Amino acid sequence: MSAGQQGNNQAKSQNAEGADWDDLKGEVGDIAGEAVERGRSFIYAARDQATDYADKRKDAVAQSVADFANSLRESTTTFEDRPNIRAVVDSAAEGLDQLAGSIRERSYGEIFSDVEEVMRQRPAAVVAVSVALGFLTARFIKSTAADLRHEINVSGAEIRSGRKRSGQGASAQKRA
Questions:
Q1: What is the pLDDT of residues 72-84, one digit of tens each?
Q2: SS in 3 state form for the chain?
Q3: Is the pTM higher than 0.70?
């Protein structure tokens, strides 16, 4: 084989390898494009499903808020001699009723964007409310834990005294 023929064969081989490489790159690009498209459709489907779930749950949340407002109103019957306290509680209950109605009427996306906007406009108020809620939650948990400890101590004392009584009865039967 002459040098010219060898060079010609090498050029053909390189062209064939280049064509195969280009075909492979094209196929990989197509596969990657398809994977990206499927990923997007998966993300959109997951977002739609999460939004649907949140919209369904928002009705339950709205009902809970309305029930809490009714409980507040019912609790004001004990404040008949204190009209100022009753007015404050009734006002809070009315605000909760409005919140429940707003939750029912609006979509999850609208509620989320409103909350986000308030957080951006009034970050100090959000921090203050968060601290207050954290404090109230901690107090509630602490008082609930104290109540549970008291119940456990009382029931434990009853169980111990029941064992002593049954143990005394058994020892009295053994003596007889």
A1: 888 777 777 888 8
A2: CCHHHHHHHHHHHHHHHHHHHHHHHHHHHHHHHHHHHHHHHHHHHHHHHHHHHHHHHHHHHHHHHHHHHHHHHHHHHHHCCCHHHHHHHHHHHHHHHHHHHHHHHCCHHHHHHHHHHHHHHCHHHHHHHHHHHHHHHHHHHHHHHHHHHHHHHHHHHHHHHHHHHHHHHHHHHHHC
A3: no
> What whole-number distance in Å separates Cα of residue 86 and Cα of residue 10?
97
At 84-136, the pLDDT tens digits run 888 888 888 899 899 899 888 887 778 788 888 988 999 898 888 889 888 88
Q: What distance in Å separates the CA atoms of residue 68 and residue 97, rounded to the nearest whole number?
A: 9
